[in-house]
Amino acid sequence: MLSKSAEYALRATIYIALKSSEDHKLGIDEIAAAIDSPQSFTAKIMQLLTKNNGVVSSVRGPNGGFYLTEAAQKLPVSAVLEAVGEYGILTKCVLGLKECSESRPCPMHEQYRTIRTQMKLMFDKTTIRDLAEETGKGKIVINNRPVKKK
Q1: Tens-digit pLDDT profile for residues 111-120
Q2: Distance CA 87, CA 108 (A)
Q3: Overall domain count for the chain
């Protein structure tokens, strides 16, 4: 349902929230390996996530890398979708019609409205920290193996 960009952005953000701090920043190689994403694709996603003081913070240089601030960890997961231009999945017509509405619905409008509302609520109410904490318990994965909290 989500694009690869959105999937990798969510996985990267969770991993960074789990493993980084302002004192311990993560490099692109580590992030890409941890989320099973090509390094160049991960770099493009990280640009979107850091753009305009976005979800992820970054520092250039020898001690640089990516990290999440305390404030960023409290952001809803929908902020990650917004950063990579995928928030529309929670608001648009499932068939991609511009004119789909209550008065002029597509064939899937009624069924998808309920699903879309539930998805929007889930992405708006769940924080990045919530997902990182669940992943850190070791039973939830963002890869083919559990990630332990540092």
Answers
A1: 998 998 999 9
A2: 20
A3: 1
